TrEMBL record:
This is MFS transporter. Keywords: Cell membrane, Membrane, Transmembrane, Transmembrane helix. It is a multi-pass membrane protein. Coiled coil: none annotated. It comes from Allokutzneria oryzae. Pfam families: MFS_1. CDD domains: MFS_MefA_like.
Length: 413
């Protein structure tokens, strides 16, 4: 049985690596295609907004649906559905994505819902397949796998889009999902049984997941703190871009922005590696709080403190690395302390509560940056993250949650 679970874990996350590369390439190509055919920045913003609706605001509903199935069935449904959406996008791209924007938006929404379902299913499967043995380190490994496509995806999308046809990118994306589904179908593991005798009520289940988090003092404190972290991050996203562009020498802005993006992708892999190395050496609370403080100090204040591009690249890499260092032990806490049969639902609710403020903060940050300046807003948000990180380090409730759960599953409330 352990061998079956190890093989299933490798198949699930190996397939995730493949499908994420395809999805990253497809997302890049979709933006290029729509903008080339419409010339409208508003159309690109609309695609992003619709995607956010599914991936963040409807994530609890997707989790409730996933919890109604076995993890294996949910992974199959998610991959097959996402593959079908990708093939439909290939067809629409061949007809002209810009001329059929409403159809594209519907497909983007469907794809984001299926992606959210897959994401919470995979996160919930970690504990089922790996037990409770060093989940922080295991999440570091999965984060590393998820970070690899941030390099390869855009490069693949740009290559296929420029040398062939945009439809081919979406076709390849669909094939990667179908390949993942075939791999999942080929493995067997004895996991959590499918929910039987319980009616499927996704919206009621989603509301229950939110209530469960808010009813537990420790989880409520943790989630509200990270809602603040994500809000501050959203406030400064536009400022970071504007600062790099404005402070760049003539003709270097686009190259500097590209290098900052590559550095951020490298930081994701670096942070995952750091987690794997430190998981057994540093307490979870230290990793989480220290990483939040590091992101604020290095990634925001450090970026705003100089006009030297090499420092910007280092700051971007450091911020992404800190995000990964915080995320792995944080995910391990939820995996250990939430019952297996509702993990996808609770993970979806966690995404809503934690990331829900982010899109609104991005809009607000653009207005504030014009009023106080990009550098000033980044320093403000960096100081805010330093304070929230210090709070996480000092919190007794976070300390209690951070202790590895041994024995009965704990939810509290």
């Amino acid at each position: 049985m352990p061998g079956n679970k190890t093989r299933a874990f490798a198949v699930l996350w190996g397939g995730q690596l493949l499908s994420l590369a395809g999805s990253s390439a497809a997302s890049f190509a979709l933006g290029l295609t729509v903008y080339a055919e419409t010339g409208s920045t508003a159309a690109l913003a609309l695609i992003t907004a619709v995607s956010t609706l599914g991936s963040i605001y409807l994530a609890p509903v997707c989790g409730a649906v996933a919890d109604h199935m076995s993890r294996r069935t949910a992974a199959l449904v998610g991959n097959l559905g996402a593959g079908a959406v990708a093939l439909l996008l290939a067809w629409v791209a061949a007809l002209g994505a810009g001329r059929h924007l409403p159809v594209v938006l519907c497909l983007v929404l469907a794809g984001s819902l299926l992606a959210a379902m897959l994401s919470v299913t995979l996160a919930a499967s970690v504990r089922e397949l790996r037990g409770e043995a060093d989940l922080t380190r295991v999440n570091g490994i999965t984060s590393f796998l998820e970070g690899i496509p941030t390099f390869s995806g855009p490069l693949l999308g740009a290559l296929v889009h420029s040398q062939f046809t945009p439809s081919l990118v979406f076709l390849l994306d669909g094939l990667t999902f179908f390949a993942c589904a075939a791999a999942v179908a080929a493995v067997r593991w004895q996991g959590r049984p499918r929910a039987t005798g319980r009616p499927l009520r996704p919206f009621a289940g989603a509301a229950g997941g939110v209530r469960r988090i808010l009813a537990d003092p420790g989880f409520r404190q943790l989630q509200l703190t990270f809602a603040g972290v994500n809000f501050l991050n959203g406030l400064s996203v536009a400022s970071a871009t504007a600062f790099v562009v404005a402070a760049s020498s003539a003709g270097a802005a686009s190259w500097n922005l590209a290098a900052v993006g590559v550095a951020a992708a490298a930081g994701l892999l670096l942070g995952s590696t750091v987690v794997v190395v430190l998981a057994r050496r540093v307490p979870r609370q230290g990793l989480i709080g220290g990483a939040v403080m590091g992101a604020g100090l290095l990634g925001r204040i450090g970026l705003a403190a100089t006009t030297a591009p090499v420092v910007w690249f280092a700051a971007s890499a450091a911020r992404s690395a800190c995000a990964q260092v915080a995320n792995a032990p944080l995910t391990a806490i939820w995996q250990e302390r939430v019952p297996s049969d509702i993990q996808a639902t609770v993970f979806g609710a966690r995404r809503l509560l934690g990331q829900g403020p982010y899109p609104l903060a991005v809009l607000l940050g653009g207005v504030l940056a014009d009023a106080v300046g990009s550098a000033g807003l980044m320093v403000f948000t960096g100081v805010g993250e330093l304070l929230l990180g210090a709070f996480l380090l000092a919190s007794s409730r976070v300390r209690e949650l951070s202790r590895s759960a041994r024995g009965p599953e704990l939810v509290g409330g």
